[in-house]
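Quick one before lunch.
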Amino acid sequence: MSRKLVPLLPSHDRYIEVFAGGLSMFFRKHRARWNVLNDIDNNIINLYISVIERYDELIDKLFWIPKSRKLFLNFREEIKEGKEFEIPDPYQAAKYLYCIRFSFNKMIHTPFSMNKDMKKAYDEEFRYSRAKIGGATIENLDFEDLINRYKPAEGDLWYLDPPYFVATDRKDYYMNSFSIEDHYRLKECVDMIDENGGQFMVSYDHRPEVEELYKEYDIRTINIHYSGATGEARKKERKEYVIINYAPISQIGLFKSKEVT
Ligand SMILES: C[S@@+](CC[C@H](N)C(=O)[O-])C[C@H]1O[C@@H](n2cnc3c(N)ncnc32)[C@H](O)[C@@H]1O
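Model of the S-adenosylmethionine complex:
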């Protein structure tokens, strides 16, 4: 999806990615003068900080963890239990990445997938990531605390890709649950960005709740293929909403929601 969204980003001095996850937008776009990357999940943040700070140890750990269902299940249990650790902890980062890479569909709650090779070109991939994330400010906050701390202002671009309503329904997509109240709380934060002159882009699932909640903003529909999905699912095109408060220069791939047939 980020491939379609990057051309629609406005110019900005400060870029804040509120729900970092796999950072697909940040990795695809150009770096702003100031970049802030945030996620509430301490395993995600530990992975990024370990890539920057403890690079060699992380690569070494990853290379030598044997491929094993037993290990996968043990690590996953540990992560789910929320065992405490200090950041950066490269071994914890390696275990976390191991669970994601060996999970079916790269989702931590899905079963062990035997057919993946962990020993591929990590070094090359991580060198690129390290160079790109290095210099960014990395936060491990709830979205509301982040927005209060970084006071939205003109020249900002806030990109928000929250857990979707479907994740709220299912409850097991992410380590941190996201309630209906959180979706409403998020809307108030988005309003605050707007009131303070910041630009924002929110991506969301194509659901009536989203259309209703964000009706005063510019809501567009985007057609996408999910890259992580299985063969059958990949063939189907899905729709998602993109909500913005600025006029995009490029219109490629975007439709006013009412115009979609
Ligand atoms: C849809 S994913 C983001 C995906 C991301 N755009 C990517 O490229 O992979 C949502 C992310 O929000 C994080 N999250 C959930 N609740 C949060 C909260 N209250 N504050 C900040 N981040 C939160 C999750 O840990 C998850 O990584």
